[in-house]
Structures are given as structure tokens and as C-alpha cells.
Amino acid sequence: MTEMRSSFPIYPGRGLGWITIGASLHAVLTRLKAQPQLYPQLDLAYSATEPILDPIVLNLPSNGLRLRFDGPDQRLRLIELLDFSKSVFTYKSIELVRKTGASHDDPSEQVAGPSFKHLYNRLFGPSYPGEYIAPLAGKSQGTYILSWPGLAARFSLRPKSWSEKADFVSLLSSSATSPASSLAIFSGSSWPEVRPTLYSKRPNLPRSISLATKTTENIPDEIEEVMVHAGGKLELFRRTSVPLMVVLNETTPQDLVAELGPPDAIFRKSGSRISIQAGGISKNRLPSVSPTLDPHMAEHEHSSYRSYTDDSENEVSTFDEAQGDETSSEAFYNYFHHGFDVLVSTPDPSTTHDPERPHTPADFVVTKIFLHGNIPGSYAFNRHRRSRWRIALEPDGQPVAVTSEMRFQEASDILKQVYHDSYRDVEEEKRMQRGMVLNRGWGEGDSPESSIEFLGGFEEGPTTKMQTSARGGVDASMSNFNNTELFGFPGLLFEVLKNDSISCLTVYRMDP
Fold it and tell me: In the beta sheet, which residues pair with residue 483?
């Protein structure tokens, strides 16, 4: 029986098949996981201590591919073809590797990479001289990297054969050079030019694969960054369109749908089965302008994760199905591809409606927004695209920003200074700055909605696992990321991982 192999056309500077340079990690992983027959093994490697700043590497060993993403934006920067026997690679309908009859009959047989002559004469054409890299200590072969716009090939070269005066065409055509050991696809004119800014320069193509390949019409513009302003205002900067301003307690669901498109899913909060235990929070606490880490807030935040589980099917619906449901007083609009969830509800149900009449969608407004960090190794990883945000602050008239790339300790130090006068006394400030632990991993089936617990203790411990399978959700060895801490500031609630990365920012509007 012939083994199924994936087939990829090469587009220099743009991508490999449907995998486009600039695509988000969420979009790529979601597409790969939807086709397990073609992509049976996905291995994700990342830094356990710096998952936001360091690059993320996705290996597809069964397909001979390696994909490299930047950490802050989680966008694809480099596609590497490492094993030419695992997949069929073509350029303008010409196969990259000329296979023998035996190779076609036995896909598991190791296939040598493409020769220089094949790449130069039949595929990519003339090129400028490349870059020679001397062998590392203990190695007998040097490396010659030859670039074309948007593509580079790596050849092994005997050091004694190298000369700066040698004609590279003659050199690479000789027996001193092996076939190409790998190919790389990137955005730029040459590999030496691209390499210094590989992970920092903004990609030309969008994060959305559908937008990049234009496979779907009328796709809403993607969100580049969210700016959080005072007074419950959020400015959503878009890739090509003008910014969208969302005002909590004023913007309607209809406004969202008109600008962002229909949500990917809607979770109706009525009938929630979440069990909450809040330790150390008094229900009779006096009113204050300081934020509260109350169970109601935590329940909202946690509920936004529930639309991804199979056993909540009675409470999750598509946008079209939800139009006829007017019985729920609250609903989460899940925008997985934008990187956030939106809670829509009535601003003040006790005064705005007749208790005999159910609420209608026309009564709803946006009351909370959850901006997800999509941190590798976290319990909620790959449920949303990463959302980048910035909190605009002006203490003492000087502009300061807290960003999604900061460690929470750094962000907290800034926010403590800004909101120091918001507390009644020093004791309240200390009490409100104490983090509360949220456990996401307990319960039947280890499902997100099974249980939610506030714990009194919090044990620190470094994460040692650097690589995990991307198939099947969270690896058992990642269980130390199940516990996260909640920290509150006026209008803001941070969910923080043990490595001090911000997993989610909840923005809500404080009552005056």
C-alpha cells in the first residue's frame, strides 16, 4: 500500500502551498491539526522562560518541514525544507527532486536533495554569488548558501575546494559539492539581507491564511494591536482599515459584527455549571474604587474558555443560530481568529428592563473584553490567535505604556505607581495586590469548565519541558501551567503564568 505524502508547490518569498510567510501560529496549527492523515506529527519547541520573546519552532518530521515563528507576534518567518523524501515539492509543476523508480515505489527510502545544476538550470535560474561559512570546530564540511529572491539553498562544501576567487557556478557544479541539504523560503531579496531582521521586520502578508490566499470573499480586516485607553475605551488598530473604537457599556453587538464580522462561536452564560470557591474575599466588603478579584469576575473570565469543549454543546452556537435566542442575559462572542472574546450583556439589568419581558439582542452592549496571549505551554494555548495590546497611561502627564510583551512584574510595577492613589489606605493596596490562584486543570476529563478553584498557596517552579506535541491539547508535563494567578487593577484583570507571562488581559469598565 502506497504511503500518503503531502504535496507542496514552492512560492519563493511567499510560502509553501497554503503555508504563507506571515501566517499566525494559531492559523497554521489549526489547519495542520484538521488534517491528521497528512500531518500526523507536530512538535512545538519554545523557550519555557521566554515564550514571548524567543522564536517558536514547529517541526513536521513526517513531512520534512520546519517552521519558525517570531515570539512577540507569533507569525511565520521562515519555512525550511529539511527532508526531500517526506513530501513532494514542486516549482512551476517541476519536481524539486528527481526521484528514481525505486524511490517512487518506496516513499520511506532516503532521497538526496536537489543538485545545484537542477536548481540553477531548470528551476530558479541565475543567482548572485552566495555566502561561504567555514566549518565549525570538529566538522569536516563547510557550508555554501546560495540565495534567490525569497529562497535559499544550503550546500555542503569541502574547505580545501573553497576560494574567494573561484567561480561559484563551477565550484557548486563540481564533485566537491554535495546536493542541497535544505531549502529555506523567506520574505526578502537574499538570505544575508534578511537574516539580521528575520524575526523583527513586519511581514508583508497577513496573519490570516484565508486573507493571504484569497480563498474566501468578504473576510474582515485583521486586528494588528489593541490600545486600551482610560474610561473603558479600546482602540482596535487594523491592518488596512481605519481603527475601530470600542466603548464598554456603549458599543453594541451589532457594531461588532458590522466591523469584525460574525463571531466564530457564541457561548450563552445562562445555566453555567462552574463551581467557584473564593477564599479570603468577603462578600460584605465596603465599596471602593479599587478593583476586586471577585468570583463573578473570575467566572466571566473562565467561562470564555468553555466554547472549545465538547460537553458544552447545548450552550454554544454559531452566530446564525444565536440570532433567535433571546432568553440569555449574557453571552460571549468568541473571535478566535482575532485573538479575543467579548462579553455582551445589559449594563444594568435591574433598572433597564421589565422583569416580565426577556432581554433581546437589541438591549445588549459590550461589557468586557478578554485579550488572549496564546502562550505556548499554557492551558489555553492555540484556542485563540495571539492578541497584542498596549495600555496607554499618562502618570504625571508623561506618556507610559504597558504592553503584552512585558513580564507581569514589570507591568505591575508601572501600574502600582499609576494607581497608587486609587486605594483607601496602604492595607487595602497590599490586599488588592495579592494574587489569587486559578486552577484550570482539575475535574473530570481535565476539561476547562469542570472546576474553578481559588487556592491560598502558590508554589513557584521552573518549567523544564521545552518541547511538546501540538496534537491533542495540553501535554501532561505541562500541568504546572494549569495554575495561573489573577491580579487586579482598576478596570483591568491580569491572568499570569508561573513564568511571569501574561496569559490573558480582561478589560472592564469601573463604575464611577
Answer: 439
Do 77 and 187 fall into the same domain?
A: yes
Listed residue (146, 151, 184, 149) closest to 68, CA to CA: 184
Residue 9, classed as helix, strand or coil, is strand
User: Residue 302's pLDDT is what?
Assistant: 41
187 and 260 assigned to the same domain = no
Domain count, the chain: 2
Q: Does residue 238 share a domain with residue 107?
A: no
Domain span holding position 319: 220-461+475-508
Whether residue 64 contacts residue 112, with contact meaning beta carbons closer than 8 Å, is answered with no
In terms of domains, do 246 and 106 share one? no
Question: pTM for this structure?
Answer: 0.82
313 and 382 co-located in one domain: yes
Tell me whether residue 211 is in a domain: no
Question: 499, 393, 432, 177: which is closest to 294 by C-alpha?
Answer: 432
Question: Are 189 and 227 in a shared domain?
Answer: no
The answer to the question of residue 208 being in a domain is no
Mean pLDDT, to the nearest integer, of 166-178? 79
Q: Check whether residue 154 and residue 264 sit in a common domain.
A: no
C-alpha–C-alpha distance, residues 347 and 372, integer Å: 24
Cβ count near 198 (within 10 Å):
16
Pairing relation of β-strands 389-393 and 223-229?
parallel
Separation between Cα atoms, residue 360 and residue 346, nearest integer Å: 10
Q: Cell 516549482 belongs to which residue?
A: 91
Domain end among 166, 197, 228: 197
Q: Kindly state whether residue 207 falls inside one of the protein's structural domains.
A: no
The Cα angle at residue 187 between residues 185 and 193, in degrees rounded to 5: 100
Report whether 318 contacts 266 (CB < 8 A): yes
The answer, yes or no, to whether residue 146 has pLDDT greater than 60, is yes
The percent of residues above 70 in pLDDT, for the chain, comes to 71
The residue type found at 371 is: L
> Does residue 56 lie in a domain region?
yes
pLDDT of the residue at 490 = 86
Q: Are 299 and 285 in contact (CB under 8 A)?
A: no
Task: State yes or no: pLDDT of 251 exceeds 60.
Answer: yes
Is residue 374 scored above 80 in pLDDT?
Answer: yes
Residue 197: is its pLDDT beyond 60?
Answer: yes
Kindly state whether residues 159 and 75 are assigned to the same domain: yes
C-alpha cell at 449: 469548565
14 pLDDT higher than 70: yes
C-alpha cell at 200: 523583527
Q: Per-residue pLDDT for 392 more than 60?
A: yes
Chain-centroid distance, C-alpha 223: 13
pLDDT at position 126, please? 87
CA distances, 230 to each of 63, 248, 486, 495 (Å): 48, 11, 21, 20
Long-range (24+ apart) CB contacts under 8 A made by 393-401 are 393/418
